[in-house]
Please model this.
Amino acid sequence: MTAPEATVVVVDEIEELAADGLRWLTAAARDTPGGGLAWPAKPSDDDVDLMLYGGTAGIVPVLLEAWRHFGDDSYADAALRAARSLVNAVDGAEDDSLYFGRTGMAVVLRTVHDELGDTAAGTAADRALKTVRSRFDGTRWGVLFELMGGNAGIGLGALLVGDAELAVSAVEPYLRTAEPTPAGVQWAHRPDIDSRLHHLSHGTLGIVLALARIGAATGRTDLVELALSGAADVVARDEAGPEGFLVTHSTPLYRPDVVEPLSYGWCHGPAGDAQVFRLLRDVTADPRWPALADRCWHTVTHSGVPRRLRPGFWDNNGRCCGTAGVLALACDRIAEQGETDDFAHVLVADLAARATRDRDGARWSNFAYRATPGDLEPGTGWAAGNAGIVRELLRFVRLSRGGDPRYAFPWPDQPQVPRRG
Model:
């Protein structure tokens, strides 16, 4: 399958689309006690969601992005109010993980402290990580044992806020829990299943990224070596070489009744795999890693995305497992390697075409092909909603104009590109 034909978008119009997306997003916010602000995962939800994955903590970064991009202090004010809600809720969080719990809240609170000088946010971030440390049993924090909901993500979050000791403690259990395979090692993402997941969100490559990043930052070569062994296992499973790179979701396939065996996005496909290979490139300077990232990109651009070729093939516009996540990698490649922006334009044009726009602003509905009706209610957050999409559109606009390709908020599992100039 060949890459989509080149498409040209008008950058000013995409900036207007992003602004409309922000307008819809800010209107969906709800007041909380103490002058705070928080968002439900969907406008129809009764309760607000405070987590990084689909809720308020994941919306704060796009507010900071918008503040930097437009120079409009109203976005900074909204970020401060959102941080107030996180401060008030961080002690009561039931989960400690990066994407679904207290660590993700702490990462965002520390950023609000650093960027906006909010001392209460900084104090709450420190208190949150202290609680995270106290709830560690020496091996894990809960059922999940990977990047989104387990040790790897907690380690990355701790490292990002400057707690290298907690970061190392979080990933050291992988040394004794690694399962040897013919090509390297793998891990169970939870103890109650036989399937082994391979990609970034819940699988081996997410653990690899945490081990490599934390190991390199702390001088722990044993952690880096273990990361390389985990990466070797996944590389050996490739089904698309020598030009491409494509690995099945899991072995044996986890939940085969609902899980697609092959995917192309950030969570379980080559768009996310390439982020791990980018990091291993930076950590090792070994040329095989950028070569593998190139192979991931070849597969993504020749897969048919963002077209929806059949039911279940490509139903999501969002950052986690949809078009915006591929756009993030496209912009990384433009910034780092001078990649042509042709495919980025294809992705942006598709996002623009799929947006619902009216007097309330712009938002995106994903599609569930097993449900009737299939169009889902637009979401607010990072994973599948407006926040994740708008964040990538703003970066695309900035990059297209020769501006700084870096994010205002460095996401824990996406290596930052160098500043231009």
